[in-house]
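Per reviewer request, we include the raw input and output of the structure prediction for the construct analysed in the revised manuscript.
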Amino acid sequence: MTKPLIVITGASSGIGAAMARQFSDAGHPLLLVARRIDKLQALGLPDTICRKVDVTDAAALRAAIAEAEGVYGPVDGLINNAGLMLLGQVDTQDPTEWQRMYDVNVVALLNGMQAVLGDMKDRGRGTIINVSSIAGKKAFANHAAYVGTKFAVSAISENVREEVADTGVRVMTICPGAVETELLGHTTSQDIIDGYQDWKNSIGGAIHPDDIARIAAFMYGQPQSVNIRDVVVGPTRQTA
């Protein structure tokens, strides 16, 4: 392969699937991981390994990465995109939903970074793009636990960026606003879902996952000496 390996988590739909198509079109071999392997395979992308992996299982994630590196060479780009959004009020939300979000949004992100960072530092190059959220910048009603996970993503990303900067490795963060994905469907409160949909309609709708994928490709495509550290992007009419 003339271009290096890209790993994308949560690639079965939405932003992850759009990123997979974007990087495949640019000629990169891919490792795509998600819980729904049928959705990964249905993308039909060339030079792509699809694996059913629970990203909270660090050993399984490492094994999939090692398998892909055996075929396509070292990981040059990791996109930590897997995430859960379970909205609710702290006084009434099922605490197991908090744990699930922290496991997927935070611990799994750390698993992914740990799996590739050592080798990237040794090679003196590599890029990690972590998908945070505008909810990693500010508060929203019914988002308390989710906001906490995304503030963690943004903070961890910036902290690790500083730690590895001198090695030549880049850590970047994308913070999307409203995007048309399946993410809202994870929420168990129909009232919250309906309110979110009403808000989204009031701003003329969400942006498309392809919009985020193009931005990720632009960030990754800069020279290794250039790090676009943090991007916030959303619909023009989204004020919050």
